Amino acid sequence: MTDKTSAQAQQKFTNLRKRLDQLGYRQTLGLESLPLVEKLFADLVHTTDSLKNAKLELGKQTTESNDVESAIEPYKSDNAKLVKENNDLHQQIIKQKDESDAIVKELKASLRKLEHENADLKFLNNQYVQKARQLEKESREKSDRILHLQEKNFHAVVQTPGGKKKTIPFRRQRMEIDTIVPESDGPSRLVIPNPEDPYIADLLQVADNRIAELDREIRRLNDEKDITERKVKNFREQVIVFFN
What we know:
Layout: H1 2-23, H2 34-153, E1 155-159, E2 165-169, E3 190-191, H3 198-243
Antiparallel strand pairs: 1-2, 1-3
Main location: cytoplasm
Protein name: CEP135
InterPro entries: Centriole_BasalBody_StrucProt
């Protein structure tokens, strides 16, 4: 048994020594160190094989990585372009937002101004309407006064056969008599006021001038009212367009 063990140990020593020599490890090796060296050599072989396999795997992965890099290179270029475009668009959006905020701010200020102007125009319009109504009322009163003065100052005097005089308003254009006028050698007396009486002429002239003045004022106020209404309508349309 001892001889067999010794033979096996000798065989292991010989094989190990040969392999160490092949690998360049030519240092002295004793039998007592055989188990340790054998274990270290086995670990060395295992490590060497693992390293070789790792290198092969690394080479394979490197090749695959290069292939992947080559395949994704166009996508990298496209991605860089997209990133640049995205950044440019982001800057444009920021710029447009700032411009939009400025425009909205300006429009709000314009809207407030238009609202104030609209309120002022409505107030002026109401004043103009009231003034126009007042002028129309004054015009009617003046017209009625003129008619009253005309009826008071322009009249016809008719003398009846009984010798009485009867005053008839000129506008009525008719006469009332008690009996039929008999035939007479001379014409009946008919007293008609002179239409060229300076007092009446002056009164009519003053009335006509005032009426003409009131008519002009009414037309002017109506024109201003129309202009104001058009402005208000225009402002309303602008406001509607803005909110739409």
